[in-house]
Amino acid sequence: MVETKLRRNSQVRREVVGQVLEYGAYLSKWSAEDVERQAEHYLADPKTPARFRSQSPYEALSRLGTLESPAEGVDENDIRGKISNSIANFDMRLIIAVDRVLDPLRSLVTFTNSASRFAMYLLEVQQYLAPDGLRIASINVYGGSGPRPDGGGDGRTRWDETRFSDTLKDHTPADARAAVQELYAFMQEQADSVVWGTGRVDGSAGFGVRRGGDRFVIFWVTTKGRVYFSAASLNKRAQQEARALLSTLRALGIEAPDELLEGDHWPTFDAGRLKNSSDRKRFRSAVLAIRDAVTH
Predict the structure, then answer these.
(1) pLDDT per residue over 34-67, tens digit each?
(2) What is the domain partition of the chain in residue ranges?
């Protein structure tokens, strides 16, 4: 979300920060379908580049990086799931573009970033007119959460086993912690790979499965003691086994109707609901059934 203001505008200080936060609050209530509708509106606009115009959002995404024929099609359910997950985790960029950054505004943005799960940026955009009439733009960027160790600039770092375990130990109730630790050990033993998340505050580890060029995660566990998965992604790859997983969860007293498989849903539950080794064994068996179904 981008908000622009000129220095002479009286709203360039406190008001613009409140304004962009209001936009962020509005976007936090969107669904993946809302994002798709907005993308479709853009793609139908006559001003949209011809190579993307009048295509679906996913056809347009498949053309990114190629000027000729579309690349291999993107996984629509996977993209919808990532959008839903980003919205749920407040993974958004709020950008204020001004012609001159003032110190009070910079201080407000710095404070907001220090206390937030999202990132706010200041763009200082200045224009110059060259002797030959060419307009030149100079852009300085302030804010965000600073550079991350792996080279990104939004403050997100990829988790690892040590950081995940330490955070889990310090912030997760004992019953949920035991379940997460057992499920993580299960990932290490049975998954093709453990997929680490990049959350700023909450860590996540996923049961990764790779078949040819396709890699997906059957379920995730987090340092908050939660378990979640993309119902649409599982339904696409192993419909019968995905229904069996939901049936297993219902048998354990977790609300998981089959209707979750019909749309863009990310079921989540407290890992502590897998109260004992027997419950966790039933959950693991359902996960392995999905893994094996995809294998064949």
Answers:
(1) 888 899 988 989 888 888 888 888 888 877 754 4
(2) 2-143, 161-295
